[in-house]
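Researcher: Next entry in the queue.
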Amino acid sequence: MANAQNGKGGKSIGMGTAAAGIGAALAAAAGAYWLYGAKDAAKHRKLAKSWMLKASPEVARLTRDLRGAWAHMSTQMKSTSHGRKLSVQKASPKKSAKKSAKK
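Model: Structure for this entry, 103 residues:
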């Protein structure tokens, strides 16, 4: 029983996919119990809210950083030809500061 039929055109679902689905369902059930079914569920919800409020600024910062990195990558890709591989070189902060100071 390595593969099970999913009924869509005879495609099969692997055991890893099935295990991941079962794991996700178990995690959701455990989270629902922890937040709503446990004896101290009100405390747990308050704790989860404080975690979310602490994480929110960090997620926003990471999103800004990722947006800036994506913009940089887009400009690099536009400036090179489509047939060549990009060679991205990391510049250390000290070297880039020296280059900007010379200009």
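Model: Residues 6 and 12 are 6 Å apart (CA to CA).
Researcher: Noted, moving on.
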